[in-house]
């Protein structure tokens, strides 16, 4: 028996056979999607800061694929509260990209996002609490000189507790003796200047959590001696 193949059919069958021999047309394993998350530490999330000012810690994300850092991919950032700088950046050799967030002018909760197109976990959302930088009730400290009745040179109240981002104001209430505000640690709060008599005021905004000790250069000493005081700075309650 003589079999005659139609030419087009033969070509089609040959093509099918060739595809079968190459695994059915599979061009190889598909690439896993990139994954974007906040960095495990110091991501910049959940900070508090003064309205209209940059947060102390930048916002940071890390991009990986199958657990390996992915460099040189573009991450964009956006916020309806304040501004971000930069708004677009590439990941470094460790897969990390970052941006500085300057808060908006309205006190309260604020949000920002980091976006990587087609990545798992995108967008990444960061939150912050903006606090008014103006002096608040309960954040006033009087700078008082001793008197004939036995009152000592003192700060009143001696110890106060404020939310992070709050400005504390010291007010000289008389002109009997010269005083100033000097930080025990040499940094926080900043020195108010040389010894001065009142009436005058000095304000300092506390943007870092902790307990900060201070004293008067002339009438106190570091460690709580004489004319001294403390400011305890705590996080804003959620």
Instruction: Give unreliable regions as ranges.
Output: 1-25
Coarse structural class: mainly beta
Architecture of the largest domain, according to CATH?
Sandwich
**SSE order, as H and E?**
HEEEEEEEEEEEEEEEEEE
Mean pLDDT: 84
Question: Main sheet, how many strands, which sense, barrel?
Answer: 5 strands, antiparallel
> How much β-strand is present in the residues?
35-45%
What do we call the CATH topology of the largest domain?
Immunoglobulin-like
* Termini separation: 89 Å
> In DSSP terms, counting alpha (H) and pi (I) runs of 4 or more, how many helices?
1
Class of the largest domain, according to the CATH hierarchy? Mainly Beta
CATH superfamily of the largest domain: Immunoglobulins
How would you summarize this macromolecular structure in one to three sentences?
By secondary structure, the chain is mostly beta strands. The chain is built from 1 helix and 18 strands.
Describe the structure.
The chain is mostly beta strands and about 240 residues long. The chain has two domains: about 35-130, Immunoglobulins (Immunoglobulin-like); about 140-235, Immunoglobulin-like (Sandwich). The protein has one helix at about 5-20, and strands at about 35-40, 45-50, 60-65, 70, 75-80, 85, 90, 95-100, 110-115, 125-130, 140-145, 155, 160-165, 165-170, 180-185, 200-205, 210-220, 225-235. The strands form four sheets. Strands 1, 3, 4, 6 and 8 form a five-stranded antiparallel beta sheet that branches. A five-stranded mixed beta sheet has the order 2-10-9-5-7, with no helix packed on it. The protein is elongated, with a radius of gyration of 32 Å. Mean pLDDT is about 85; it is low at about 1-25.
């Amino acid at each position: 028996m003589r079999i005659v193949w139609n030419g087009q059919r033969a070509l089609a069958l040959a093509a099918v056979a060739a595809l079968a021999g190459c695994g059915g047309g599979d061009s190889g394993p598909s690439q896993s999607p990139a994954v974007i998350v906040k960095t495990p530490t110091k991501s910049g999330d959940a900070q508090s800061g003064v309205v209209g000012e940059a947060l102390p810690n930048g916002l940071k994300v890390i991009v990986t694929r199958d657990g390996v850092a992915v460099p040189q991919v573009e991450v964009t950032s956006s916020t309806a509260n304040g501004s971000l700088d930069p708004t677009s950046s590439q990941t470094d050799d460790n897969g990390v990209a970052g941006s500085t967030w300057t808060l908006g002018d309205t006190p309260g909760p604020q949000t920002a996002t980091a976006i990587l197109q087609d990545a798992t976990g995108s967008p990444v959302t960061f939150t912050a609490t903006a606090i008014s930088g103006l002096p608040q009730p309960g954040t006033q400290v009087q700078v008082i000189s001793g008197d004939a009745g036995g009152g000592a040179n003192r700060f009143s109240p001696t110890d106060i507790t404020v939310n992070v981002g709050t400005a504390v104001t010291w007010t000289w209430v008389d002109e009997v003796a010269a005083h100033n505000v000097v930080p025990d640690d040499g940094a926080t709060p900043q020195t108010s200047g040389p010894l001065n008599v009142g009436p005058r005021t000095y304000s300092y905004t506390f943007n870092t959590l902790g307990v900060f000790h201070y004293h008067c250069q002339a009438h106190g000493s570091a460690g709580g001696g004489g004319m001294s005081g403390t400011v305890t700075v705590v996080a804003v309650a959620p």
